[in-house]
Design goal:
The chain has 126 residues and is mainly alpha-helical. It has helices at residues 35-46, 51-58, 62-82, 107-125; strands at residues 8-10, 18-19, 31-33, 86-88, 93-95. The strands form 2 sheets. It has a 3-stranded mixed β-sheet with strand order 2-4-3. Strands 1-5 form a two-stranded parallel ribbon. It starts with 7 loop residues before the first strand and ends with a helix.
Length: 126
C-alpha cells in the first residue's frame, strides 16, 4: 500500500491558470499541471533555488521535489511540442497563510499587502 501524499506548501496561486497556443490548440485536450508542479518549476527555474531549497520551502523531501519537477517539465514539454493547452490546477497543496510566518519568498507577503491595499481602497470608495 503506498504512503499517503503529503500536502505541499505553495506561496500562492498562479495569476494565470490557462495557456492556449495561438493559431490552434482549442480542439485538443489540455494538459493538466498541478499547482505543486507549477510551484516547483517556479522555485527552481524562475527563482533559481536548488532542489534541496525548493523542498524546504514546500516542506517535502528533495527526492519528492525531483519527482514533481520531472513530471512538470515533461508536461510542459508535451504542451509545447504537441501544441496543446496547458491548465494549472489541482494537486495536493496548501497555500501559505499568515499562520505560517514569513516563508522568505516575498510572494505571500506581497499578495497579502496587495489584498489589504485593495480592501482599503474599496472601503474608501464606499
Amino acid at each position: 500500500m503506498p504512503r499517503p501524499v503529503k500536502c505541499r506548501r505553495v506561496c500562492g496561486m498562479p495569476e494565470t491558470r490557462e495557456f492556449v497556443p495561438m493559431g490552434g490548440g482549442c480542439g485538443k485536450f489540455p494538459i493538466e499541471l498541478t499547482v505543486d508542479e507549477y510551484e516547483t518549476v517556479r522555485l527552481i527555474d524562475r527563482e533559481g533555488f536548488s532542489q534541496e531549497e525548493c523542498g524546504q520551502r514546500m516542506e517535502v523531501a528533495r527526492t519528492t521535489v525531483q519527482q514533481i519537477y520531472t513530471t512538470a517539465r515533461k508536461k510542459i514539454a508535451d504542451a509545447l511540442v504537441e501544441g496543446r493547452p496547458l491548465r494549472i490546477g489541482g494537486g495536493q497543496y496548501r497555500v501559505c497563510d499568515e499562520g505560517d510566518g514569513f516563508c522568505g519568498c516575498g510572494i505571500c507577503r506581497r499578495r497579502r499587502e496587495a489584498q489589504l491595499e485593495r480592501k482599503a481602497k474599496e472601503e474608501e470608495n464606499q
